[in-house]
Amino acid sequence: MHTLKLKIDDKVYDKFMGLLGKFSKEEVEIINEDHFLQTKKYLQQELDEIISGQANFLSVNETEAQLETLIKKHEDRI
Fold first, then answer.
1. Are 62 and 53 in contact (CB under 8 A)?
2. What sign does the CA torsion over 53, 59, 63, 68 have?
3. What is the mean pLDDT of the chain?
4. Residue 73 CA to chain centroid, in angstroms?
5. pLDDT of amino acid 20
6. Nearest to 47 by CA among 55, 56, 57
7. Where are the alpha helices (DSSP H) in the chain?
8. How does pLDDT run across 12-49, given as a tens digit for each residue?
9. CA distances (Å), origin 4, targets 28, 41, 62
10. DSSP 7
């Protein structure tokens, strides 16, 4: 898989996007760069926290308890 960053003139943008739309999502995925950069920054911060030893981890039981609480809180919304 390759990732490209392109600058596309406004005059041909719609045609270019139409061309990309002919491919399936498995073949070509359009990535919103702002979202990508935000996600990259978040993940880097998480990794830095783990490496520095400041990350807090939950046990399986603690995770299950938190999920159960969350499900009970929102189960009436379905």
1. no
2. negative
3. 92
4. 25
5. 92
6. 55
7. 10-20, 33-52, 60-74
8. 999 999 999 999 989 998 887 888 889 999 999 999 99
9. 11, 19, 41
10. -
Q: How far apart are CA 72 and CA 70, in angstroms?
A: 5
pTM attached to this predicted model: 0.49
CA distance 17 to 15: 6
Q: Sign of the C-alpha dihedral, residues 38, 40, 41, 47? A: positive
In this structure, the number of other CB atoms found within 10 A of the CB of residue 76 comes to 6
Between the alpha carbon of residue 13 and those of residues 17, 19, 31, 57, 64, the distances in Å are 6, 10, 15, 45, 47
CA distances from 63 to 7, 45, 56, 59, 71 (A): 44, 21, 12, 6, 12
Indicate the domain borders of the chain: 10-77
